[in-house]
Amino acid sequence: MGAAVVDPAPLVGSVTRAVFFAAAIAAVAALALAAIFVRQITRPLVDLTHASRRIARGDLRVRLPVKSADEVGELTATFNQMAASLEKQESLRRNLMADIAHELRTPLTGIQGAIEAMQDGVFPADAENLAGLHAEVLLLNRLVDDLRTLANAEAGQLILERTQIDLAELCRRQVNAMQRRADERGIALTINCPAQTQLIEADGQRLNQVLLNLLDNALRHTPASGSVVVSLHADDDHVYVTVADNGAGIPAADLPHVFDRFYRGDRSRARSTGGSGLGLAIARQIVEAHGGCMWVDSPPPGAAHGAEFGFMLPCAPKELH
Fold first, then answer.
1. Fewer CB within 10 Å of terminal CB in the chain, N or C?
2. Which contiguous run of DSSP H or E holds residue 245?
């Protein structure tokens, strides 16, 4: 008898079905894994989209958790930094508007009250009362000019008429100009700077404004028989100017804010005695526009009390010396 012939069709069909089922299972698993991966990739982007819409509606407090260290995580961290910066700028804008409204209200209220008193016959419209109104208008104009200068400086639009100037000579001239005021108050105003020329490329009028503000503040807060010292020194690349006094100094809590707009550590100080509150903010912007920096120490290094304001500026190129 011959050997039995085995029909291969059932075996082939079984293998085909097994392969088909395995392929189907693999495809389903691949699709499930792909869906999971796509969700992991797109979910942060969807969250970023929703958060961006909330920011567009004015909700600047929104933040997103950073869940990965890849490009999406970096994008999320950058988004959070942007949102924090926008929130800070909005807070500064609101505070600035409130401060401006407050500062403008004071002289305007005074002017309005004086004019109404004249209209009602309470005060005569004589030269003395008109002079008081004129003084209030001058204060108001100064405040507006300071605000315009500060706005231009912060926007990077401050116009600097740079020329080659001798900073040492500029400091000596400013000290000489303030000497009479210091003498009247019994304050020793001195300058300590090298005799040689300290050339810089700068706007001399703007730097005069910086020095005037620093000296004015120092003389205002130094008691009689006190001292104010202006010092200047330079290295190969930079020149440094400091104005130090031996007054009461600045409280530690106030030091981080002395360059803020409208900031006054002593809340009892009015504009007439404490300035507009913009001088130091403008001075710092002027120095930074020249490529320098400004700082304050209270008490000065090695002193028991007082305050020292200083600024650094780049020297003129060597070929200009």
1. N
2. strand 238-245
- The C-alpha atoms of residue 236 and residue 196 are separated, in whole angstroms, by 14
Q: What is the mean pLDDT of the chain?
A: 82
> CA–CA distance from 201 to each of 159, 161, 162, 212, 288 (Å)?
14, 9, 6, 19, 14
For the record, the structure tokens of 68 come out as 């990965």
Q: What is the pLDDT of residues 26-80, one digit of tens each?
A: 878 777 777 667 666 777 778 888 888 888 888 888 888 887 777 878 888 898 8
Give pLDDT, residue 34.
74
Query: What is the gyration radius of the CA atoms in the chain, in angstroms?
Result: 35
Is this prediction's pTM over 0.85?
no
Q: Read out DSSP for 109-177?
A: HHHHHHHHHHHTTSS---HHHHHHHHHHHHHHHHHHHHHHHHHHHHTT------EEEEHHHHHHHHHHH
